[in-house]
Automatic annotation (TrEMBL):
A cellular component term, taken from the record's GO annotations: cytosol
Classification lineage: Bacteria, Pseudomonadati, Pseudomonadota, Betaproteobacteria, Burkholderiales
Species whose genome carries this gene: Pandoraea eparura
Name of this chain's protein: UPF0301 protein PEP31012_00611
Similarity comment text for this entry: Belongs to the UPF0301 (AlgH) family.
HAMAP family given in the database record: UPF0301
Length: 189
C-alpha cells in the first residue's frame, strides 16, 4: 500500500443503510486498530441479554460492585464470540493482554482486567463485549469504497455515557447528519 493510506484507528465506523451484512446493519464499531494488515474493532451499540453478573458467575468471579451487576455485555462482532474483550479508559495499570489505541482507549482481552473490575480496582468506564469485528488487508477500505460505512473520530463519551440505543444517532451527529439524511445509494464522480 502507498504511504498515504488511511488510518482509521480510534475512529467510529457507522453502518450505512445499504450495509449488506445483517450482522453489521445499524451498528457503530469502535476501531481499535487499523493497519496495512487489516482492522479490528468492537461493536458498541448491540447489548446482549447477558449482564455482567451472569457472565462473572460463569467465570467464577464474584462481582463486588453492585451497580455493575446489571450492566449489559455487548455483541462485539462475529469473530471469537466465546472470548471477552474489554474496551476501557486507560487506568495506568498494565494488564496481561492490552492494546493501547493511540489517542484513544484500551482494549484488554486478559482475565486480569475482569478480576480487577470484580473487586472494584478495574477501570471505572468500560464496555465488555463477546467477540470482535475483524477485516483482512484492504477489506475495510473496500467496504468503505462501496458505501458500507461512514467514519468519524471516536468520542469516548458516546461509548460510555450515551445509552446503547442512542449511540448510532450520536455517532452520526458527530458528522452533523441524521439517519434520515442517509441513502443506501452511493454516488461516484
Amino acid at each position: 500500500m502507498p504511504n498515504d493510506r488511511i488510518n482509521l484507528t480510534n475512529q467510529f465506523l457507522i453502518a450505512m443503510p445499504g450495509m449488506a451484512d445483517p450482522t453489521f446493519s445499524g451498528t457503530v464499531v469502535y476501531l481499535c486498530e487499523h493497519s496495512e494488515k487489516g482492522a479490528i474493532g468492537l461493536v458498541i451499540n448491540r447489548p446482549t441479554d447477558i449482564d455482567l453478573q451472569s457472565l462473572f458467575e460463569r467465570l467464577d468471579l464474584k462481582l463486588e460492585i453492585d451497580p455493575l451487576a446489571h450492566q449489559p455485555v455487548f455483541f462485539g462482532g462475529p469473530v471469537q464470540t466465546e472470548r471477552g474483550f474489554v474496551l476501557h479508559e486507560s487506568t495506568g495499570t498494565p494488564y496481561s493482554s492490552s492494546l493501547s489505541v493511540p489517542g484513544g482507549l484500551e482494549m484488554t482481552t486478559s482475565k486480569d482486567v475482569l478480576e480487577a473490575v470484580a473487586n472494584g480496582q478495574g477501570p471505572h468506564r468500560f464496555l465488555l463485549t463477546l467477540g470482535h469485528s475483524g477485516w483482512s488487508a484492504g477489506q475495510l477500505e473496500d467496504e468503505i469504497g462501496r458505501n458500507g460505512w461512514l467514519t468519524v473520530a471516536a468520542d469516548p463519551g458516546i461509548v460510555f455515557d450515551v445509552p446503547p440505543a442512542e449511540r448510532f444517532d450520536a455517532a452520526l451527529a458527530l458528522l452533523g447528519v441524521t439517519s434520515s439524511m442517509l441513502s443506501a445509494d452511493a454516488g461516484h464522480a
